[in-house]
Amino acid sequence: MKEIRLHGRGGQGAAIAAEMLAAAFVKEGKYAVAFPMFGFERRGAPLMAFLRFDDKPIRQRTQVYAPDCLIITDPSLRHSSGIFQGFQPGGTLIINIAHPPQERMHPNVQVLGAVDATGIALQVMGKPITNTCMLGAFAKATGWLKLESLVSCFKDYFAGRLLEDNVQCAERGYQETKVIPMHPPRLQAQRKAPGRIIFRPSAANIPGKKYQRIMKRITSRPVQRSQGIRVADARWRIGNFALDSR
Known about the structure:
By secondary structure, this protein is an alpha/beta fold. The chain folds into two domains: 180 residues, Pyruvate-ferredoxin oxidoreductase, PFOR, domain III (Pyruvate-ferredoxin Oxidoreductase, domain 3, 3-Layer(aba) Sandwich), CATH 3.40.920.10; 49 residues, no CATH class. It is 28% helix and 26% strand. It has six helices and twelve strands. Strands 2-3-1-4-5-6-7 form a seven-stranded mixed β-sheet, with helices on one face. Strands 8-12-11 form a three-stranded antiparallel β-sheet, with helices on one face. A two-stranded antiparallel ribbon has the order 9-10. A hairpin with a 7-residue loop joins strand 2 and strand 3. The longest helix is centred in the C-terminal third of the chain and has 17 residues. The radius of gyration is 31 Å and the shape is elongated.
């Protein structure tokens, strides 16, 4: 079962986007369930919508606490607290943003789908209603759904010129989405510092020249390694000194 959480604002169509997405999955023979959660019921207020789909019937009706995919329809919400709460490792992030972020937005993001949905909606419809454009971006970034299945559901929600505009938004969202694989950060190999040769005197009276000769002879040799074990890690006794490498 895959779980999806949408974050948006009132008036952007995030709630109806979850319904259309569920209908498209059903058209492809999946089981799907979607429902919204509202805070203050006013335009511009943050809201969430949830979606689950699977090959078998879904009994769970709770909120999505551990999403496999996040859809952020408003770019101002990406820094809000709790946006990435429970986000699963290897997840997909679909975000409405003009320019893809340079930084890694979250360690669990494996695939980033970035699209300027607001710009597309303003050009096509003259209003910043980004839901259908984000659905097109979802289809491209995840590959879980065909664009044709998604667009075929629009006639149940729109008609006339509004239908044509939303179909165009979805198609442009699909075409203009930048899908960026986010490889996990590589751990840099930690280079061990060269072994320090420490002389610990075991006798009081050591001639200075003899000390210098021993130091020059030992420190000029590179630290050898044999079968992963540093030879210098052993202990020697040279004259009146104990050679110890740490």
